[in-house]
């Protein structure tokens, strides 16, 4: 009867190997989760850099508009001063003409000379007013052109922002799906509400961004999404390989149990025959 409870070291070795494999797979899953969290943090850092670039672009455009408006206002003030000086010169000529009328006997010649000067001053005043009106029209035309360009840029920003929001949402959906499959329940890598697509879109609508910068950022996001998809596929293949390994271990365990039962049955039969 001493052989009934005989210790089999092969069974313990197989069990320990199976446990070691399970721990290794758990460690690999945790490493993958940390990698996904790192990618999401990198995505948030990229969004912050985009925000800073947008703020810088807005500041530069605002400064340029302010300088343009200041230049236009300075030019208008200069023209107004010239008109005022011309009117003052006309008034001085009229005063001089009245003085000459009282002092000079040749009134007709004085009047003709004064009228000639007066006509020249009127022509100068008309020219200045024409330049002032032209400057005002140029300012309005420039403002209208800049408004149209601003509208086109904002429309392009809205389109690029929609693409960015779609890519961000797609990346987060894939990450959430993978984490759910990995941990068995929905899992959030952290509170990212402040940098959600809605928040980013509202920030984008209040700023200007060059189209090339948006395209470079979108290309980087596409590469990140492709890298995440590649890692997800690798993990999926690892999970399938682990499932195959688990099935092989289960089959080996069942085979060993059947063999042990057959050995135990043969031993019981021999012991029963010896007792008889």
Query: How many domains would you count in the coordinates?
Result: 1
Major sheet characteristics: none
Name the average pLDDT.
71
Give the strand content: under 5%
Structural class: mainly alpha
Taking the alpha carbons of the first and last residues, their distance comes to 15 Å
The total count of strands amounts to: 0
Question: What's the Cα radius of gyration?
Answer: 44 Å
Measured as a percent range, the helix fraction is over 70%
User: pLDDT under 50 segments (min length 5)?
Assistant: 1-5, 185-192
* Outline type: rod-shaped
Order of helices and strands: HHHH
Give the helix tally. 4
What attributes characterize this protein structure?
single chain; 276 residues; mainly alpha; disordered N terminus
């Amino acid at each position: 009867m001493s052989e009934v409870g005989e210790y089999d070291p092969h069974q313990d070795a197989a069990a320990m190997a199976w446990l070691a494999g399970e721990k290794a797979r758990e460690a690999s899953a945790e490493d993958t989760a940390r990698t996904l969290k790192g990618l999401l943090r990198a995505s948030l850092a990229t969004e912050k850099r985009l925000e800073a670039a947008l703020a810088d672009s807005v500041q530069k455009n605002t400064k340029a508009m302010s300088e343009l408006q200041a230049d236009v206002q300075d030019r208008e003030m200069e023209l107004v001063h010239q008109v005022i000086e011309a009117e003052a010169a006309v008034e001085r000529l009229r005063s001089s003409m009245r003085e000459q009328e009282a002092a000079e006997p040749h009134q007709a010649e004085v009047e003709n000379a004064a009228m000639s000067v007066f006509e020249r001053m009127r022509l100068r005043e008309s020219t200045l007013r024409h330049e002032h009106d032209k400057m005002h029209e140029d300012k309005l035309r420039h403002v209208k052109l800049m408004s149209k360009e601003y509208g086109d840029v904002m429309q392009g920003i809205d389109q690029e922002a929609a693409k960015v929001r779609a890519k961000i949402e797609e990346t987060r959906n894939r990450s959430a799906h993978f984490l759910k499959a990995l941990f068995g329940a929905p899992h959030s890598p952290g509170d990212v509400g402040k940098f959600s697509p809605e928040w980013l879109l509202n920030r984008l609508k209040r700023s200007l961004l060059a189209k090339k910068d948006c395209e470079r950022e979108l290309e980087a996001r596409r590469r990140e999404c492709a890298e995440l998809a590649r890692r997800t596929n690798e993990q999926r293949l690892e999970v399938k390989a682990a499932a195959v390994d688990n099935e092989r271990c289960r089959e080996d365990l069942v085979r060993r149990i059947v063999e042990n039962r057959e050995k135990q049955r043969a031993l019981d039969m021999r012991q029963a025959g010896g007792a008889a």
